[in-house]
Amino acid sequence: MRVAIAHDYLTQPGGAERVVLAMLRAFPDARLVTSVYDPTGTFPEFARYRIETSPLQRVGVLRRDPRRALPLLARTWSSTRIEDVDVVLASSSGWAHGVRSSAPVVVYCHNPARWLYQREDYLDGQPGFVRPALRVLTPALRRWDVAAARRASGYLANSASVARRVRNAYGIEAQVLHPPVTVDPTAAQQAVAGVEPGFLLCVARGRGYKNVAMVREAVETLLSHERLVVVGDADPGERTTVLGRVSDAELRWLYAHAGALVSLAREDFGLTPLEANAFGTPALLLRSGGFLETLDEGVSGLFVVDGSAPTVAAAVERFRSRSWDVEAIRAHASRFGERPFAGSLTAALAHAVTSDHRQMDLH
Fold it and tell me: Is 185 part of a structural domain of the chain?
């Protein structure tokens, strides 16, 4: 098949971007189309590919933070046409599913637009002017979003939780295809200076719904014997080390030497606990969202009922009192491998090519 992969924007080193790299490995000859691309902001592996961008690429501030282009992205993607391919795979968290093509479009949905359907999660931590601006834009954006989704030939969702959101937002039944673990535990590691093994690890970008501050509060106020290492954004503390962005080699070292991966995020799927599991490191996770599908409680980690500091502290104490089977944890992560993901994705695209019954949109 001649495949094109469309992704919202390539400006950050997130889980969705790791999935796009897995898609490119599954279809190495695919075209890669996006709105804006910042090679310094996302994974360096993208530099190996020829990336087609939109006119927004010429605006430097939008390359650095494409959220500033929110009023423009719907029109940008509606104006993006991909032809001379057999199928388009749209990797979307809210925009790329609007791409146009005479070929069938299969959407891999990381989540329906958070700013439309999970607004409080999106607004948490945003500047005050964003709320009234979003209120004005929402009716038109929602009409565009629903129309774009319903043009698709097929929908894949990264978790059952996201599949339910797709059903509620669009009336579409999406097939669940979990994303793969792409971090290689056998690859080279680089020790992080000043960090001693056994710490609690939190890997999250600085978004409010990631709830890093809740983990930090528990460590700083109630767990004097614990140390927290944050990859991403957070306020440092007496027992909290904030590393910001790290290399993949450093991330592998952190996964391998952490006592536990801790996340209280309201995740759509959540790759980081499985990445930690691939190194034999258990996870302590909020009992919510995609984590319900990816944690084997008692085998690969434990759940936390809520994000309050006392609850998190008690869960850490319970966690530390148990022994963990490293090989069982690794075996759990291996269920989410890249090879079965590629096989299922290939089958879904082939099905769309051979049985595309959508109403063609050629205008």
Answer: no
Q: What is the mean pLDDT of residues 134-149?
A: 92
| Per-residue pLDDT tens digits for 77-131 | 999 999 999 999 999 999 999 999 999 999 999 999 988 998 766 655 566 656 7
Q: How confident is the model at residue 360 (pLDDT cuts 50, 70, 90)?
A: very low
pLDDT digits (tens, 9 = 90+) for 294-327: 999 999 999 999 989 999 999 999 999 999 999 9
Query: Is 12 inside any structural domain?
Result: yes
Identify the CA nearest to 45 among candidates 65, 22, 15.
Answer: 22
Among residues 340, 348, 349, 358, which one has the least CA distance to residue 4?
A: 349
Mean predicted confidence (pLDDT) in 139-166: 96
Whether the pLDDT of residue 330 is over 90: the answer is: yes
The CATH number linked to 27 is 3.40.50.2000
What's the domain count of the chain? Answer: 2
Look at residue 222 and tell me if it is in a domain. Answer: yes
Residues 43 and 166 in one domain: yes
